[in-house]
């Protein structure tokens, strides 16, 4: 009898150890929280930054990490700050710009490039920059602007309106840490990816060209009747467009406001499913082993 009890205890301990190992592997594979020890502290401050930018995928979920090769970069960028007057009127636009922090230079003198064209958005309380399938990866931006200060680049959202200069005095911002082939958002906070809708001028001006598959990396500078500032060179550039062309750009973020783009299941969801399945299989196998051991120990000696 004691041998039976001892054998059962061994099986139970083994089951607990195996379950714990699987659970830990699930935690390790989950997407990191914003700034959760995966990056060094941001080495600079930006007095022009007010609020933050949140990044969203095609499923309407906020994301805080991704691959530099993802093309497009993200589906949508959302500001945590409402648009101030007069940039909150019917002609309001938003654009996502990436900047290269350089030690010894003030943030206003950093160089950068646009990641999206200008976007019209519906909710003035949540400015949005929408990307299209024409937009390319963050890796393309980094190819032109390699990080020089502890692996960081900075995203900003600049606002525009008809007959107004681009509003770049204050802006929501998000710091991205680049490590190998991965970017990680550091700081920031939650946003509502579905607080409104947005449409890129790329879709408005050239609607048929935005139906290419996501990840193609195709892009151009856009052309049309209105105007938007180029994002290349010092201080990047924001759109003041009121209904014309997309701005020229070096690299872009996005999904597709008007075309067809496949939606992938989030990696964290798939990983959780695998962990649960592994736990069930492990417990089933250990239960069979326990039954076999008990039967062997109870069997009468020959």
Structural write-up:
This protein has 302 residues and is of the alpha+beta class. The protein folds into two domains: 2-30 and 267-298; 33-264, no CATH class. 24% of the residues lie in helices and 20% in strands. The chain has four helices and twelve strands, in the order αββββββββαββββαα. The chain has helices at residues 2-29, 138-144, 201-205, 267-298, and strands at residues 49-56, 62-63, 65-67, 76-79, 93-100, 111-114, 119-121, 128-130, 152-160, 171-179, 182-186, 198-200. Strands 1, 2, 3, 4, 5, 6, 7, 8, 9, 10, 11 and 12 form a twelve-stranded mixed beta sheet that branches. The longest helix has 32 residues, at 267-298. It is elongated. The protein starts with a helix and ends with a helix. Residues 4-8, 10-36 and 208-273 have low confidence and may be disordered.
What percent of the residues sit in helical stretches (DSSP H or I)?
Answer: 10-25%
Structural class: alpha+beta
Q: Compute the CA-based radius of gyration.
A: 25 Å
Number of helices: 4
The secondary-structure element order is HEEEEEEEEHEEEEHH
Low-confidence stretches: 4-8, 10-36, 208-273
Would you count the extended β strands for me? 12
Largest sheet: 12 strands, mixed
Shape annotation: elongated
Q: Assembly state here?
A: single chain
Mean pLDDT equals 71
What amount of the residues lies in strands? 15-25%
How many structural domains? Answer: 2
First-last Cα distance = 18 Å
